[in-house]
């Protein structure tokens, strides 16, 4: 889906999420959302916050699971995805504290394996993801599933690509401050979501979007795995669509 600009696109995506939340409310069911960080979803979150304030959109039936977190990372660090989500969304809506989950960047190395399994189990226990929001890395990563991640990969500790660390180095005030590892939801649980929307804005995403949408399905570009999903949309602006 190609939109004139990221604002229009974000509006459409926020509408879809709000409609889903309300539909589930009417059915008396929880709405299970997979959420992403990065700059791409920021406007979607801002619009959802506005809908909460102005239209009374309630998040009380929302259960959310974030894709990833740096490792090691304290939740209250200014660089953490915990902090990002609180600032962009959770602190401004009525989601219950016990209903949002973000991978814990402080889990001891020895219990990581069990922790990752339990993170996925928790998603399954509430019925699986109704909707997964994604961004895309310049190298095709989804969550932090870097090139080489397999289609059946599970939630795990990964080593960040050099290019991913370079892309994050501005925010962290230098490459040496960027963590080398992260916890990410695997490709398999992402593909298990019933609906997936990937966002990409700007010219710097044009080439990776072209390869993800039109290229071969390949571990060299994990976003290309989405081609196999029955209900996925790549929501892009004109610039990110410029090489399609
Ligand atoms: C980070 C996140 C990804 C995100 C990507 C792109 O690496 N872990 O989930 O999709 O950045 O970020 P941006 O949206 O800022 O381009």
Descriptive account of the structure:
- The structure is a single chain.
- The protein is of the alpha/beta class and 244 residues long.
- The chain has a single domain, classed as 3-Layer(aba) Sandwich (Rossmann fold).
- The protein is built from seven helices and ten strands.
- The longest helix has 21 residues.
- The chain is globular, with a radius of gyration of 17 Å.
- 41% of the residues are buried.
- Bound molecules: 2-amino-2-deoxy-6-O-phosphono-alpha-D-glucopyranose.
- 2-amino-2-deoxy-6-O-phosphono-alpha-D-glucopyranose binds next to loops.
- This is Glucosamine-6-phosphate deaminase.
- It comes from Dyadobacter flavalbus.
Helix content: 25-40%
Query: What order do the helices and strands follow?
Result: EHEHEEHEHEEHEHEHE
CATH architecture designation: 3-Layer(aba) Sandwich
Low-confidence segments: none
What is the CA-CA span between the terminal residues?
A: 12 Å
CATH class: Alpha Beta
Mean pLDDT: 98
| CATH level 3 topology | Rossmann fold
Largest sheet: 7 strands, parallel
- Summing up helix and strand content along with how strands pair, one would put the structural category as alpha/beta
Shape: globular
Number of H- or I-type helical stretches = 7
| Main sheet strand line-up | 1-10-9-6-2-3-5
**Beta content:** 15-25%
How many domains?
A: 1
């Amino acid at each position: 889906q190609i939109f004139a600009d990221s604002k229009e696109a974000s509006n459409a995506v926020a509408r879809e999420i709000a409609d889903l939340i309300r539909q589930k409310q009417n059915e008396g069911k929880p709405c299970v959302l997979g959420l992403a960080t990065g700059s791409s979803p920021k406007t979607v979150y801002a619009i959802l916050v506005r809908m909460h304030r102005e239209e009374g959109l309630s998040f009380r039936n929302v259960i959310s699971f974030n894709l990833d977190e740096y490792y090691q990372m304290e939740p209250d660090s200014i660089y953490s995805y915990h902090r990002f989500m609180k600032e962009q969304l959770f602190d401004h809506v009525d989601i219950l504290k016990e209903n949002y989950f973000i991978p814990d960047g402080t889990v001891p190395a020895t219990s990581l394996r069990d922790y990752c399994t339990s993170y996925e189990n928790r998603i399954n226990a509430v019925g699986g993801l109704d909707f997964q929001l994604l961004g895309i890395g310049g190298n095709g990563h989804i969550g932090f599933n870097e090139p080489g991640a397999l289609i059946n990969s599970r939630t795990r500790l990964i080593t960040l690509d050099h290019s991913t660390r370079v892309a994050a180095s501005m925010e962290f005030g230098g490459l040496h401050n960027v963590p080398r590892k992260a916890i990410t939801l695997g490709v398999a649980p992402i593909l298990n979501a019933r609906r997936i929307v990937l966002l990409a804005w700007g010219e710097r995403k044009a080439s990776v979007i072209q390869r993800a949408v039109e290229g071969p399905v390949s571990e060299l570009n994990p976003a290309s795995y989405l081609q196999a999903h029955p209900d996925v949309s790549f929501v892009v602006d004109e610039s990110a669509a410029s090489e399609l």
